[in-house]
Amino acid sequence: MKRRDLAVFDLCGTLYTGNLLFAFTRLQPECEAAYQVADTATVKALDALLPRRQIRRRRYFKALEALPASVRDDRARRFVRDKLPEMRRRDAFEALESLRVEGWRIALLSGAPDCVVRAVSDAVEADAYIGAPFDFGRVWQYTNAAKDRLMPSFEPYERLFVCTDNPNDVRLLRMADERLIFTSQDKLGWWLRQFGPAPIRLKGME
Q: pLDDT of 148-202, one tens digit each?
């Protein structure tokens, strides 16, 4: 296989301004009881106290898992077509299109459900993607903190470009030859300490 430059984009908070797992699940009537529990103050507090347990994330995935795969896939396509355009981050999409024109392969790497990431991949005509499967023994592998472990799936490549907003992606960013980071004002100092004046853009100021 010919080695080409690879541009990897995160989805939640990067190409799009919100959490795609939460946004998609909240649109499913069958999941209402589950996400209402997951969104209570008590569960949010537990999730913040025990982040490695991924309590809310697992509840959302469990609710979606109860839907037939064909239903999830169909609704994910409609979600991407009808709802996601209003959540697009313009600067991130401009970077994606610019790199595509330059001949870079475009890959999406996200902890969002596989059905949603696949639908986004089709919509933006990405060359490759990895999303989280409906397999709770493996969900941990698809958290942001583990993205660097999934990079061999995209090999071979020459240069690597990474675009993300998540501090948990720091290991992935350190693998990159080029990077673009989106951040809120309160995390700006942390990013500057990690990468200096690398390309960093404040959210809400695109």
A: 777 788 888 899 999 999 888 888 899 899 999 999 898 899 999 998 876 888 8
Helices marked H in 40-157 — which ranges?
Answer: 41-49, 55-65, 69-82, 90-101, 114-124
DSSP category for residue 131: E
Is the pLDDT confidence value at 73 over 90?
A: yes
Write out pLDDT tens, residues 163-176.
999 888 888 899 89
Q: Can you give the pLDDT at residue 118?
A: 96
Residue 128, H or E segment: strand 128-132
Give the up-direction half-sphere exposure of residue 112: CA atoms within 13 A in the CB hemisphere: 30
If one counts every other C-beta atom within 10 angstroms of the C-beta of residue 163, the result is: 26
Residue 68, pLDDT above cutoff 80: yes
Query: Which residue in 28, 32, 144, 15 sits closest to 84, CA to CA?
Result: 15
The phi and psi torsions of 161 (rounded to 5 degrees) equal -115, 135
Which residues make beta-bridge pairs with 12? Answer: 16
Residue 190's alpha-carbon distances to 14, 89, 169, 174, 187, in angstroms, are 17, 22, 13, 15, 5
As a whole number of angstroms, the distance between CA 35 and CA 203 comes to 27
End-to-end CA distance of the chain: 37
Phi, psi at 124, each rounded to 5°: -95, 0
Question: What pTM did the predictor assign?
Answer: 0.89
Q: How buried is residue 155: exposed, middle or buried, by Cβ count under 10 Å (0-12/13-18/19+)?
A: exposed
